[in-house]
Amino acid sequence: MTNAVTYRTRWADMDPNGHMRHSAYADFAADQRVALLAQWGYDVKRFAELRLGPILFREETKYLKEVNIGEEIRVDGHLASAAPDGSRWSIVHTIYKADGRVAATVTVEGAWLDLDRRKLTVPPAELAAAFSAMPVYEAPAR
């Protein structure tokens, strides 16, 4: 099962300088995470049934190559770390240009929120297992 999603950038993703705006990188990374969770059987409906939701504590983007309007990009996600019980995690999203060059990385640190208690919680065992089976991020050699 792949965890990469391909997109085509739109006018709404651009800034006045003619390249992809900073927040669009975060939007594409978030969409890839949601798509991956849905592949695992945790779509918006399932999270609502469980009264559970993912939350972020930190998000950091490193910009490496310019992305322009109409460009095809590919976004994947790799697990950087996770607590043994799956309660907290970190994912590195890599955004690739069509030619395979890395345009940016988006690193997020998150956890799971019990939507009724409004407190951090441990996810269901099968969701924690899916996270632990996610491909592991390996930093590129310098």
Short key terms for the protein model shown above:
6 strands, HotDog_dom_sf, alpha+beta, 3 helices, globular, 4-hydroxybenzoyl-CoA_TE, Thioesterase family protein, six-stranded antiparallel β-sheet, 142 residues
What would you say this structure looks like, in words?
The chain is an alpha+beta fold. The protein has a single domain (5-132), classed as Thiol Ester Dehydrase, Chain A. It is 23% helix and 37% strand. It contains 3 helices and 6 strands; from the N terminus they run E-H-H-E-E-E-E-E-H. Strands 1, 2, 3, 4, 5 and 6 form a 6-stranded antiparallel β-sheet that branches. The longest helix is centred in the first third of the chain and has 18 residues, at 22-39. The chain is globular, with a radius of gyration of 16 Å. The mean pLDDT is 94.
Globally, the shape reads globular
Distance between the termini: 29 Å
CATH topology: Thiol Ester Dehydrase, Chain A
Mean pLDDT: 94
Q: Determine and state the CATH class.
A: Alpha Beta
Which residue ranges are poorly predicted, with pLDDT under 50 across at least 5 consecutive positions?
A: none
What would you say about this model in short?
It is built from 3 helices and 6 strands.
